[in-house]
Amino acid sequence: MLRQAALIFALSVGLVAAGQQNRRPTPAAHRHSPSDLEVFILDSSGKTISNIFLSRAFLAGLPQKTTILKADENFPELPTSHARLKGVDLDTLIRAIYPSDPRVAAVALCRDSYNSPFPRQAILDHHPILVLTIDGLSPHAWARKNHTYDPMPYFIAYQDFVPSFQVLNQDERAQHPAEIIRLELLPSTSLFTSITPPNSAQLPPGSPVLDGFRIAQQNCIRCHNSGETGGTKAHRTWQHLAEVAKSRPDYFATWVHDPMSLKPDAKMPPNLKYDQATLKALTRYFQTFAP
Ligand code: HEC
């Protein structure tokens, strides 16, 4: 109820403002430009409560943060670029449109069906920045000028990412979604509901299944989905991975470690630093979803 009230408030302020001389950009109920960021607000069951569109001008009107482009997996050919990035802290963005209850998590959805989850804690620990400009240009204009990958309309960067935890061989990942066209905001507690292993409450901390669960949240969820949760870039569901983990555990582990050793043109990135314990944790975790 509260959330709905906040949104309706935000939207009605928009309507009032639109009728005034001095227009201040506000959230809109419809898309006006391809660069509008669509924001979905979901309840704990994953149902959409509301969706709004934020224009580039609206985002630029929020308090801005700056950082320098560095160690971004989207620009591997520019490792020492000193491009200046400017954008909005994800937490600032959430508070601007969701003032009644900012205790939410976010998921960034990308044009190519890749997605990145941002648990509440990660938002507070790392302050992901939704980048609006690079060296004063839109990401698209900058990419054209520099003949490099075009992350338009939006991508995420950090001022300084230091992992907060490590699970076996997986450090907390700096999520770097690019070509973000949509944000979902949802209660933090329901972010990973559909990929939580059965009987997880009975498992002791540090059990392989729970470790695999935490690694999957950092990694696999970006391209593989369980229902509405996770990216669909891989076109292979959680259920499919579960069946592979159960029927061919060695193939599963080898694939996760180094897909190209099995399929020379594999598109999935390798995880060469995963040791046997890490691969086993993932295999055990995915097996729990097999029939
Ligand atoms: C960046 C995207 C991406 C990520 C992240 C990713 N995958 Fe994949 N995965 C793919 C794609 C794409 C395929 C389809 C095969 C290919 O690579 O061409 C695939 C295929 C697979 C397969 C092969 C299924 C089969 O039918 O043979 C397995 C197993 C798998 N992934 C497991 C995982 C696990 C476990 C993780 C997390 C540790 C993970 N993937 C993370 C993109 C990804």
From TrEMBL:
Indicate the secretion signal residues. none
UniProt keywords (A-Z) are: Heme, Iron, Metal-binding
Q: Where is the Cytochrome c domain?
A: 201-290
Q: Which domain of life is it from?
A: Bacteria
Against InterPro entries, the record matches this protein to:
Cyt_c-like_dom (IPR009056), Cyt_c-like_dom_sf (IPR036909)
Entry's Gene Ontology molecular function annotations: electron transfer activity; heme binding; metal ion binding
Put simply, this protein is called Mono/diheme cytochrome c family protein
Q: What is the lineage of its organism?
A: Bacteria, Pseudomonadati, Acidobacteriota, Terriglobia, Terriglobales
